[in-house]
Amino acid sequence: MVFGWQGHMADHSICKPVILLLFLLLITGCAASPGSAPTLPEQTGVPITLATSTPLSIQTSSPSEEDAFRQARLKLVDNIEAQGVTNPYVLGAMRIVPRHRFVLPDYLDQAYEDHALPIGYGQTISQPYIVAWMTDVLELKPGEKVLEIGTGSGYQAAVLAELGYVEIYSIEIVPELAESAAARLDELGYTRIHTMQGDGYYGWEEYAPFDAIIVTAAPDHLPAPLAEQLAEGGRLVIPIGPPGGYQSLWKFVKENGELKAYNMGGVIFVPFTGEGIMNATPAPTP
Length: 286
Description:
Layout: E1 2-6, E2 17-19, H1 23-26, H2 63-82, H3 88-96, E3 117-120, E4 123-125, H4 128-137, E5 144-149, H5 155-163, E6 166-172, H6 175-187, E7 194-197, E8 210-215, H7 224-228, E9 230-240, E10 247-255, E11 258-269, H8 275-279
Parallel strand pairs: 5-6, 5-8, 6-7, 8-9
Antiparallel strand pairs: 1-11, 2-11, 3-4, 9-10, 10-11
Helix pairs in contact: 2-3, 3-5
């Protein structure tokens, strides 16, 4: 869930790979002995139903309002394409997903402006350009399994679902957001997205490995469990940096059991929260 973005799309074509001899500087030991895998807390799915007190309710609009939203959405995606995101499947998904269904009523008039919006509990729905860009950077292929860390209101998961060819697992740490997002996605017809309320730091070991992992909040290092749950050839896209400041968006690719890192540019995301990040041994950013 990103507040904004710094940099230019033109810079992305010249991102330099860094073979991760720095890997140990990015991940934590998680209190495990050298060479051993950390012991992860049990991560199991829990029934998620819509709580009546959740701030994000399903919005209803008249046919004329829906047409106005659609026109605004198409214009927004045209602007995103002009900024350098050209993947036709990603752009197609962005043109379909009704972002106005994923925002708070107070921000409905800003649903198709290209910036992040609050969704309660200190979280945001990401800037549409960032959603499209990060989805494109994942380089998803038909039949792949994707893990999203940070469901939020469900918008990014819906965009992934509209691609039509990947299986999606999504974790949200805030119980109220997890409940409302699951109900919203179900009501909008995205019934094949697997959702769970839990600490995304630990991933979702039950369904690992994942071909792609996308993280929408910023830790100060790469969580070891996520690196371990990435399949061979898999891609992990994550912002890394200090809370409350600028971070770098990193793309990690697992090749021959090792990670290669690509710095994609500067971003500003909300901080990664939960016991996992709080109990981890601090590690420097790349």
